[in-house]
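By convention, the token line describes the chain's fold. To illustrate:
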Amino acid sequence: MSVTDDAIEAIKQMILTGELRPGDRLPREPELAERLGLSRNSLREAVRALSLIHVLDVRQGDGTYVTSLEPGLLMDALGFVVDFHRDDTVLQFFEARRVLEPAVTAMAAMYMSEYDIQNLAYLLDSLPEEPTVDELVANDVEFHRRIAAGSGNPVLCSLVENVSGRTTRARMWRAITQDNVVDRTLSEHRAILQALAAREVELARSWATVHIAGVEHWIRKTLVDGA
């Protein structure tokens, strides 16, 4: 482990133990470096690294603070990394969706409010009879985002949003090239919605798996095997 890694671990432990809490200001650099037995350069590199992943907030002329540590903020760093992946890795993100979203959908069947489920139905009904590709994909993204939020777990919600958001372009390709994609998407969305409304946990999980696996299969055959 490098000296910078040691510094990162030391700051992380201060946060995990509660010595530093969200919103707290870190001690001044010379004081913290002496306290941790680290060089100021190593501490500076650690602070820079932790600020890149939104754990710390460096405010010029003011000091360095622990961020809110909200899941959505921390998961932004995942999105930053994912954006640099090549198109031929999109299948991996659909595989990740297939693992995450059925579990999240099952949780939503238990915890999503009746009000939010009703609004989910309104969302599906708001789609025009002959939607554009942009309208279809935007509706699809929002549908899954609301279900993730309905799970009641903000960490899982942030993970789903970051992974799912990076598959938008592939979903648009599918909407353009695959026959009956509108009817199939809406049919599967309504099956998921009905399972949520009925509080059928395993049925909701199964339909989410079928729905995402179908898109994954198309990605594999069209964008990967067919490349």
Q: What stands out?
A: The two ends are 41 Å apart (CA to CA). Residues 201-224 form the longest helix (24 residues).
